[in-house]
């Protein structure tokens, strides 16, 4: 079995967009932002200035992806990464695939000099919360809000 976690490359755009569709529409039941918007987002992330995407490739097929955005923490006065997306296909959850993808995000954060990585997950996503707890993550004290 060949298992690789790597940066998204230009040749991956179509397959990454397919994974993002499964994540946005299939997993979170949100409306699809549109092919053009997703392609533009992936292209922006390929530049690695605002963020970066990683994929998990198993035996030549993409089976998961994560997105880190670059930001700053006023509280720490340092650069941070925000793991905005973390998704693996159902058969690969609770497997080495998931662990390697998460460790890649952590390692990138450390290696590139960011002070820490932060993220949110749905309150209903108990499986992900269990994974993050087992990975040694600490749940923060902040409440998440958004406005449209």
UniProtKB/TrEMBL annotation:
Domain N-acetyltransferase, chain residue ranges per copy: 3-148
Top-level taxon of origin: Bacteria
Gene3D superfamilies given in the database record: 3.40.630.30
Keywords, comma-separated and alphabetical: Acyltransferase, Transferase
SUPFAM superfamilies per record: Acyl-CoA N-acyltransferases (Nat)
Record keyword Transferase present: yes
This protein's record includes keyword Membrane: no
Pfam family, one: Acetyltransf_1
Gene Ontology terms for molecular function: N-acetyltransferase activity
Protein name in the entry: GNAT family N-acetyltransferase
């Amino acid at each position: 079995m060949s298992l690789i976690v790597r940066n998204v490359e230009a040749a991956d755009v179509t397959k990454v967009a397919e994974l993002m569709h499964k994540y946005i529409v299939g997993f979170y039941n949100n409306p699809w932002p549109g092919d053009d918007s997703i392609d533009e987002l992936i292209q922006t992330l390929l530049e690695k200035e605002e963020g970066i995407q990683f994929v998990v490739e198993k035996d030549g097929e993409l089976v998961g992806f994560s997105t880190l955005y670059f930001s700053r923490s006023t509280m720490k006065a340092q650069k941070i990464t925000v793991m905005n997306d973390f998704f693996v296909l159902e058969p690969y959850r609770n497997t080495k695939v998931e662990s390697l993808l998460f460790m890649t995000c952590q390692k990138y954060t450390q290696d590139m000099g960011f002070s820490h990585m932060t993220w949110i997950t749905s309150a209903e996503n108990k499986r992900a919360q269990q994974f993050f707890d087992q990975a040694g993550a600490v749940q923060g004290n902040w409440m998440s809000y958004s406005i449209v």
